[in-house]
């Protein structure tokens, strides 16, 4: 790689202002744009349709905090594999 990965997306400012499903979708879109530069087709941990894929978060590290945040933000979660 000769340059740092970059991505550009357009979102409604209201989608970024509060925790919740819209923020998850925006984050997933930006993350997918970045990781595709490394050969991955999409993010495993969240979707662009507002869902946290809790199956792919480490239970020993970030998983419990992500689950707690998702509950507080009224975000949908799934354990379903890809």
Please provide a written account of the structure:
The protein has 82 residues and is mostly helical. The chain has a two-stranded parallel sheet with strand order 1-2. The model has no long low-confidence stretch (mean pLDDT 89). Helices cover 37% and strands 7% of the residues. The chain contains three helices and two strands; from the N terminus they run H-H-E-H-E. It starts with 12 loop residues before the first helix and ends with a strand.
How are the elements arranged and paired?
Layout (H helix, E strand, L loop, with lengths): L12 H5 L3 H15 L15 E3 L9 H10 L3 E3 L4
SS elements, strand count = 2
The quaternary state of the protein chains shown equals: single chain
- Write down the Rg: 13 Å
> Biggest sheet, strands in spatial order?
1-2
Top keywords for this entry?
82 residues, mainly alpha, 3 helices
Concise description?
By secondary structure, this protein is mainly alpha-helical. The protein is built from three helices and two strands; from the N terminus they run ααβαβ.
């Amino acid at each position: 790689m000769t340059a740092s990965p970059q991505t550009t997306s357009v979102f409604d400012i209201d989608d970024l202002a509060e925790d919740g499903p819209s923020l998850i979708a925006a984050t997933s879109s930006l993350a997918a744009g970045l990781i595709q530069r490394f050969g991955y087709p999409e993010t495993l941990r969240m979707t662009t349709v507002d869902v946290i894929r809790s199956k792919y978060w480490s239970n020993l590290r970030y998983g419990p905090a992500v689950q707690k945040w998702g509950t507080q933000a009224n975000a949908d979660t799934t354990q379903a594999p890809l």
